[in-house]
């Protein structure tokens, strides 16, 4: 075996133990050093992959089988997936049929189509730290003027189509409310929509646009009010939507 | 009542399966999909399918590979449903986005974890099968339906990409977090 072949095998299967492989290692100091580095990397890799399963995982899996019960989250997930298929499909179709998409039309479509990729986020129940929410906005160069709402369970600085956004989920009355704040793109006007089972509202806010979406339209006004207050400051929390 | 012993045996066999494998299935699912909540869902779906198809399982030693296979298919099905018609480029970009969306990114060796999740599926899957599942190149080749030479190349490149990502991050250190 030559050095090239040894390195090829080492990179693909660092754990191999066959005679020809080990013989080259023991005969060639440079490859022996590479072998040691490779073993260290494998240990590091194995450690990094060793995520801790959620507590009582086996018990919950057995319970699910015994009762035929799904995790509560599953409902949201499937709901998200079903909507996803129709929202994504409708959007793609619209584009190919040459539908004339104005500004807010494409923003709605993109926002609704963005939900399924993170369907899991709709089921998160645990409020996250204010600092994490602030960081999500800071990643987009935005400093919040006042505290965010206390019931945010998810934040991520997502790209949505061509837009830079902050994607948030809140839990209100047992339902997820998604807010996507589009940075640096201010929609011309307020707008409401219903698409793929989601009610939504599009609101110009600061130098950007806030899109709020929920299965129940009554949840939208409160979400917009809370985020207007947080982004614009306490003075701006007047009635809206 | 001749049915009862059978039911009990089946139930007991299933319980043993769940206790022995749910943890490692979760790890595999987590690194396939990059999301804790979704990973748990995938494990549950996998085990429910396993329960329904338990008769197909002849010997206990084969259980692990069988469960891995079911989980991999469940994950693929999920992607078909969630992301209709998206090409691989989008998926790679998606994976890179997802790499930063999970609380696990705060855990130990966050750089390597993020690099792992940003790895395109065609490199990540065989690497997971090898490192987590202990599969040989030939077994991976069988499972994925590709030649074992191709698996070797993917495993080699997977590690190369991880190392590149790590050295880029340590040089510039201007990551998202
Ligand atoms: Zn050598
Ligand atoms: Zn998002």
Task: Describe the protein's architecture and organization.
The complex is a heterodimer of chains A (241) and B (177). In chain A, β6 (198-205) and β7 form a beta hairpin. With 241 residues, chain A is an alpha+beta fold. Chain A folds into 2 domains: 3-49, no CATH class; 87-236, no CATH class. In chain A, strands 1, 2, 3, 4, 5, 6 and 7 form a 7-stranded antiparallel beta sheet that branches. Chain A is built from 8 helices and 7 strands. The N and C termini of chain A lie far apart (73 Å). In chain A, α1 packs parallel to α3 (29-49) and α2 (19-27) packs across α3 (29-49). Chain B is mostly helical and 177 residues long. Chain B folds into 2 domains: 1-84, Orthogonal Bundle (Rna Polymerase Sigma Factor, Chain: A); 102-177, Arc Repressor Mutant, subunit A. Chain B has helices at residues 3-33, 36-52, 63-82, 88-98, 110-118, 121-131, 137-144, 148-172. In chain B, α1 (3-33) packs across α3 (63-82), α2 crosses α3 (63-82) and α7 (137-144) crosses α8 (148-172). Chain B is globular. In chain B, 38% of the residues are buried. At the A-B interface, α1, α3, α4 and α5 of A face α1, α2, α3, α5 and α6 of B.
Q: Can you tag this structure with a few keywords?
A:
A: 241 residues, alpha+beta, 2 domains, seven-stranded antiparallel beta sheet, 7 strands, 19% strand, elongated, B: 177 residues, Rna Polymerase Sigma Factor, Chain: A, Arc Repressor Mutant, subunit A, globular, binds zinc ion
Number of individual domains of chain A: 2
Strand residue content of chain B: under 5%
The averaged pLDDT of chain B comes out at: 79
Structural class of chain B: mainly alpha
Query: How would you sum up the global shape of chain B?
Result: globular
Major sheet details of chain B: none
Largest sheet of chain A: 7 strands, antiparallel
At the first level of CATH, the class of the largest domain in chain B is: Mainly Alpha
Count of strand segments of chain B: 0
Structural class of chain A: alpha+beta
Helix content of chain B: over 70%
- Give the tally of structural domains of chain B: 2
- Residue share in helices of chain A? 40-55%
Number of strands of chain A: 7
Could you give the distance between the termini of chain B?
A: 62 Å
Mean pLDDT of chain A: 82
Shape of chain A: elongated
Taking pLDDT < 50 over at least 5 consecutive residues as the criterion, the unreliable ranges of chain B are: 1-5, 83-106
Fourth-level CATH superfamily of the largest domain in chain B: RNA polymerase sigma factor, region 2, helix turn helix motif
């Amino acid at each position: 075996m030559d050095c090239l072949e040894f390195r090829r095998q080492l990179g693909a299967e660092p754990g191999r133990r066959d005679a020809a492989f080990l013989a080259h290692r023991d005969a060639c100091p440079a490859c022996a050093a590479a072998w040691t580095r490779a073993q260290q990397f494998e240990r590091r890799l194995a450690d990094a992959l060793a995520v801790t399963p959620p507590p009582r995982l086996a018990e919950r899996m057995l319970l699910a089988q015994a009762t035929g019960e799904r995790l509560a989250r599953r409902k949201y997930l499937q709901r998200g997936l079903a909507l996803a298929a129709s929202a994504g499909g409708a959007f793609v179709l619209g584009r190919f049929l040459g539908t004339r998409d104005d500004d807010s039309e494409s923003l709605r479509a993109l926002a609704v189509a963005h939900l399924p990729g993170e369907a899991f986020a709709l089921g998160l129940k645990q409020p996250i730290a204010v600092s994490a929410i602030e960081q999500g906005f800071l990643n987009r160069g935005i400093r919040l003027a006042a505290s965010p709402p206390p019931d945010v369970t998810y934040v991520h600085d997502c790209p949505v189509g061509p837009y830079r956004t902050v994607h948030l989920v809140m839990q209100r009355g047992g339902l997820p409310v998604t807010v996507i704040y589009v940075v640096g793109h201010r929609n011309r006007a307020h707008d409401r929509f219903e698409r793929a089972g989601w009610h939504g509202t599009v609101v110009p806010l600061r130098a950007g646009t806030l899109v709020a979406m929920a299965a129940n339209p009554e949840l939208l006004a409160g979400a917009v009010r809370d985020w207007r207050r947080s982004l614009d400051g306490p003075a701006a929390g007047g009635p809206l939507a | 009542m001749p049915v009862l012993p059978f039911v009990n045996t089946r139930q007991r066999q299933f319980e043993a399966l769940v206790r022995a494998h749910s943890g490692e299935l979760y790890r595999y699912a987590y690194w396939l999909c990059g999301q804790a909540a979704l990973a748990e869902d995938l494990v549950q779906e996998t085990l429910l399918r396993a329960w329904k198809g338990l008769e197909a399982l002849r010997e206990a030693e084969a259980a692990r590979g069988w469960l891995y296979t079911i989980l991999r298919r469940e994950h693929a099905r999920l992607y078909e449903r969630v992301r209709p018609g998206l090409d691989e480029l989008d998926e790679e970009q998606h994976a890179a986005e997802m790499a930063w969306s999970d609380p696990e990114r705060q855990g130990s060796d966050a750089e390597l974890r993020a690099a792992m999740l940003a790895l395109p599926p065609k490199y990540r899957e065989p690497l997971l099968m090898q490192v987590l599942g202990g599969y040989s190149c030939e077994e991976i080749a069988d499972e994925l339906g590709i030649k074992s030479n191709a698996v070797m190349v993917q495993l080699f490149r997977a590690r190369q990409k991880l190392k590149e990502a790590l050295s880029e991050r340590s040089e510039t250190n201007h990551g998202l977090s």
